[in-house]
C-alpha cells in the first residue's frame, strides 16, 4: 500500500512476525516488563510496595518481545473493559497500556510485532475494539487507531461568580478513602454508561487512583460526591492541590483528577464547590469534555479558560460489523460506507439507513475511509463532512456526506473517556 493513499488495495499482513511475541504469564516477567515500560517513559522502576498495592489482575493480557538472550526488550498489555457507544450500548474492548520498547532496540519493528499480536489476540477473544491513551500522536495511526474523542484542559478562577439562572446543583459531601473506595467505582460505572467513550474501570485501576502507593508525605487528595435534589448521588470529584509559593504571593491550585456528573445540575454543583474552596487561586483540569460549557454559566465567561485541547481516547475498531450494528444511528440514509483496514488486511462495506447498519458486500460505496478515520466519527466526535473536507474520508456519490452527517449524529453528551490508563 502506498502510505499516501489509505484507499488503495492493501497486501495481506505478513504470515510471520519478524520479532516473536510471547505472552508473559510469570508475574516476575510482568514486573520486569512494567519496569521496562516505566523506563521508556523515563521513570524509575516501581517499588515493591506499589507493585503489591496495585495487585495482580489475572484477566490482564501481557505481551513481550525478547532478545535472543531472553531479555524482554518490548512490552504491551491490555485489560478488559466495556466501552459506551452512541445510544448507550456497551461493547467489550481491550484497554491497552504499558507499551514500550527499550531505547536501544527501537525502530526495528518491535512495536509493530507487538501491535499485530495484541490486536489479533483481542479480536480472537471477541473484543469489538481496542482503546488507548497515546504518549505521542504519531505512533498509533499506522495500526488503525484514530482519535475518537477530544478533551479540554481548563483553568477556572477560584471564587468566580455564577450567573443567576445557572443551575444551583444539589449538596456536596466529602468522603474518606474507605467511603470513596466503596462508593465511587459503582457511581462512575453508572455515569460512564451515559456518555459515548465512557469505560468501565478495573479494581486495580481504582486502587491506583484512590490509594497511590508511596505518595510524597503530605500529598493531599480530596474526594467529594454530589447528591441531586432527588436524593440520588449523581456526580463526584477527586482532586489534588499544587501548593503555591507563599514567598512570591502564589496561591494554591486545585487540580481536578476526575470529575463525573450526570448532567448540568451535578456539573454545576461540583464546580461551585471546587471554585468555592478557600485558599485557592484557580481550579484546573487536564481533560474535560468539550460540552461542559462552564463559560455559559459563569458571570464572567472568561473566568473559564480553555488552556489546551487534545486527543482523549484513541479507538481501534477490530470488529467493525459488530461495532456499527451496536451503536445508535440518526435518521435518514441510505449511505453505503466502505472501510479499509490496511494493517489487519480487511475491507468491509456497510449500508447505513433508517437507524441500522447492515453488511452490503458487492455494493458500490458512497463514501470510503480507512479504519482509523472511521474512529474519528464513530463516537460522534467528528462529522463525516469534516472528515471528507480534510481528505480523511472520500466521497464517491455527491451529497453522501450530508446524509452521513445525519446518520452519525445522535443526540446526547459529547464523547469523552475521562479515564487515564
Ligand atoms: C513508541 C515506541 C513503543 C515505538 O517502538 P519501536 O519498536 O521503535 O516501533 P517500530 O520500530 O515498530 O516502529 C514502527 C513504525 O512507527 C514509527 N514510529 C515509532 N515510534 C514513533 C514515534 N514516537 N513517532 C512517530 N513514529 C514512530 C517508526 O518510525 C516506524 O515507521 P515505519 O514503519 O514507517 O518505518 C518506542 O519508541 C517507545 O517505547 N517510546 C517511548 C515510550 C512510549 O512513548 N510508549 C508509548 C506509550 S502510549
From TrEMBL:
Keywords, in A-Z order: Acyltransferase, Transferase
Domain N-acetyltransferase, residue spans: 19-169
Record bears the keyword Nucleotide-binding: no
Binding residues annotated for acetyl-CoA, in chain numbering: 99-101, 107-112, 135-136
Biased composition (Pro residues): 1-17
Top-level division of the source organism's lineage: Bacteria
Signal peptide span: none
PROSITE patterns referenced in this protein's UniProt entry, alphabetically: GNAT (PS51186)
UniProt GO molecular function: acyltransferase activity
Pfam families listed in its UniProt record: Acetyltransf_17 (PF17668), Acetyltransf_9 (PF13527), SCP2_2 (PF13530)
Known EC number: 2.3.1.-
Catalytic residues of the enzyme: 140 (proton donor), 421 (proton acceptor)
InterPro entries the UniProt entry points to: Acetyltransf_17, Acetyltransferase_Eis, Acyl_CoA_acyltransferase, Eis_dom, GNAT_dom, NAcTrfase_Eis, SCP2_sterol-bd_dom_sf
Region (Disordered): 1-23
Enzyme class: transferase
Assembly: Homohexamer; trimer of dimers.
HAMAP family: Eis (MF_01812)
Similarity remark: Belongs to the acetyltransferase Eis family.
UniProt name for this protein: GNAT family N-acetyltransferase
Amino acid at each position: 500500500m502506498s502510505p499516501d493513499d489509505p484507499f488503495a488495495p492493501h497486501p495481506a499482513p505478513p504470515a510471520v512476525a519478524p520479532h516473536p511475541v510471547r505472552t508473559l504469564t510469570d508475574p516476575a516477567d510482568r514486573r520486569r516488563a512494567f519496569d521496562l515500560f516505566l523506563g521508556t517513559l523515563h521513570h524509575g522502576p516501581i517499588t515493591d510496595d506499589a507493585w503489591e498495592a496495585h495487585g495482580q489482575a489475572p484477566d490482564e493480557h501481557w505481551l513481550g518481545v525478547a532478545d535472543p538472550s531472553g531479555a524482554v526488550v518490548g512490552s504491551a498489555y491490555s485489560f478488559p473493559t466495556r466501552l459506551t457507544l452512541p445510544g448507550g450500548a456497551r461493547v467489550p474492548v481491550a484497554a491497552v497500556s504499558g507499551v514500550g520498547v527499550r531505547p536501544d532496540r527501537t525502530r526495528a519493528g518491535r512495536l509493530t510485532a507487538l501491535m499485530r499480536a495484541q490486536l489479533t489476540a483481542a479480536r480472537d477473544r471477541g473484543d469489538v475494539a481496542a482503546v488507548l491513551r497515546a504518549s505521542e500522536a504519531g505512533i498509533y495511526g499506522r495500526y488503525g487507531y484514530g482519535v475518537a474523542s477530544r478533551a479540554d484542559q481548563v483553568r477556572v478562577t477560584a471564587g468566580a461568580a455564577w450567573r443567576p439562572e445557572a443551575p444551583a446543583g444539589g449538596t456536596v459531601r466529602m468522603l474518606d478513602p474507605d467511603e470513596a473506595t466503596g462508593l465511587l467505582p459503582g457511581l462512575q460505572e453508572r455515569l460512564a454508561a451515559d456518555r459515548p467513550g465512557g469505560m468501565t474501570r478495573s479494581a486495580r485501576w481504582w486502587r491506583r487512583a484512590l490509594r497511590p502507593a508511596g505518595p510524597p508525605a503530605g500529598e493531599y487528595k480530596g474526594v467529594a460526591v454530589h447528591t441531586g435534589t432527588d436524593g440520588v448521588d449523581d456526580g463526584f470529584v477527586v482532586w489534588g492541590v499544587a501548593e503555591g509559593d507563599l514567598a512570591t504571593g502564589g496561591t494554591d491550585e486545585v487540580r481536578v483528577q476526575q470529575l463525573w456528573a450526570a448532567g448540568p445540575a451535578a456539573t454545576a454543583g461540583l464546580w461551585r464547590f471546587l471554585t468555592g474552596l478557600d485558599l485557592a487561586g484557580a481550579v484546573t483540569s487536564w481533560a474535560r469534555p468539550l460540552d461542559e460549557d462552564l463559560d455559559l454559566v459563569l458571570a464572567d465567561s472568561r473566568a473559564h479558560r480553555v488552556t489546551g485541547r487534545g486527543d482523549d481516547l484513541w479507538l481501534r475498531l477490530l470488529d467493525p460489523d459488530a461495532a456499527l450494528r451496536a451503536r445508535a444511528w440518526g435518521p435518514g440514509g441510505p449511505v453505503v460506507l466502505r472501510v479499509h483496514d490496511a494493517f489487519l488486511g480487511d475491507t468491509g462495506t456497510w449500508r447505513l439507513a433508517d437507524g441500522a447498519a447492515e453488511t452490503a458486500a458487492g455494493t458500490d460505496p458512497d463514501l470510503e475511509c480507512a479504519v482509523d478515520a472511521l474512529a474519528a466519527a464513530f463516537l460522534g466526535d467528528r462529522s463525516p463532512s469534516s472528515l471528507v473536507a480534510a481528505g480523511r474520508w472520500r466521497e464517491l456519490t455527491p451529497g453522501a456526506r450530508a446524509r452521513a452527517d445525519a446518520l452519525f449524529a445522535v443526540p446526547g453528551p459529547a464523547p469523552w473517556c475521562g479515564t487515564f490508563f
